[in-house]
Amino acid sequence: MSAVLSVEQLYKTYGDQAVVAGISLSIMSGECFGLLGPNGAGKTTTLRLCLGLSKPDHGEIRLRGFPVPRQAREARMKVGVVPQMDNLDPDFTASENLLVYGRYFGLSDKAIKARIPDLLEFAGLTQRAHAKMSELSGGMKRRLTMARALVNDPDVLFLDEPTTGLDPQARHLIWDRMKKLMAQGKTLLLTTHFMDEAERLCTRLAVMDQGRIVTEGSPRDLIAAHIEPEVVEVYGEGLAAWLDAHGARRATRFEVSGETAFCYVHDATALLETLQSEPHLRYLHRPANLEDVFMKLTGRDLRD
User: Fold this and answer.
1) What is the model's pTM?
2) What does the pLDDT look like over 230-271, one tens digit per residue?
3) Helices assigned H by DSSP within the chain
4) What is the pLDDT of residues 102-133, one digit of tens each?
């Protein structure tokens, strides 16, 4: 496998703030690589740097073998981008949005029109080909934006929070489409705040915080490396007293967030036994997941 995107010691500052602070990563052909992090971690800035839309202060970027930003235009000819916010033209129909966008890549109208039926089918919008943007729901617009990113038959897709704001049905449809793209050999770079999405789709991922990569690996490997295998979430009246009497001793590690205690254990049997005699407490016993890793590494404080 060859690296479709390689980044070495990438830095970007705005004023006195280092938004990207020396990250390095390599994304291989055919994989879905996730870039996770709280708001302000530097994810979108990293994507913009890799696409040549912003100039780095330091570092090397190669996208599809081209140096970026020096040959960013050549690199982007076979790259598709789904931005964080939809930017479809409100004056055009669904088909016209695809047609006009395809012209930016030097494609002929004939070639684009030949692709439009498949792109609309991919987005589940075949019956909406002639609909104006005002007639489409938010989920439809998001799916059309994803279809638009495929108009040039890209080798690489940059997906910046592609399912934000979608209902569960639309999210699952986009997940299914992303899996089909991977099956076709496309390379995906995904940012998302949905940990279940990353855990389901990503072959590898990196967690960013304050402009740095704090860990990298497959979702399963990161869960095994950073978190105890079982989690008991406990909440309700008397939580503090129960923690003092049992939780702190029975749990390998615990965190309190709001009215919930997250107890991390290798074997939850003894902890669950103490909860049987606590009728005012409610609890959820589950396996550890990627969200637990994310919270441990980046903290539970709100980011704005």
Assistant:
1) 0.91
2) 999 999 998 999 988 887 788 889 899 889 999 999 999 999
3) 43-51, 72-76, 94-103, 109-122, 138-148, 168-183, 195-201, 219-226, 239-242, 248-250, 269-275, 290-298
4) 999 999 999 999 999 999 999 999 999 999 99
How far from 244 is each of 149, 150, 228, 254, CA to CA, in Å? Answer: 54, 56, 21, 12
The sign one gets for the Cα dihedral 144, 147, 152, 156 is positive
Supply the DSSP string of 164-179, one letter for each residue. Answer: TT--HHHHHHHHHHHH
What type of residue is 271?
Answer: L
Position 60 scores a pLDDT of 97
With a cut of 70, say whether residue 50 has pLDDT above it.
yes
When computed from its CA atoms, the radius of gyration of the chain, rounded to whole angstroms, is: 22
Strands 204-209 and 212-217: antiparallel
DSSP state of 11: E
Strand 156-160 and strand 79-82: the pairing is parallel
Please give the span between the terminal C-alpha atoms of the chain, in angstroms, as a whole number: 38
Give, as one character, the DSSP assignment of residue 227.
S
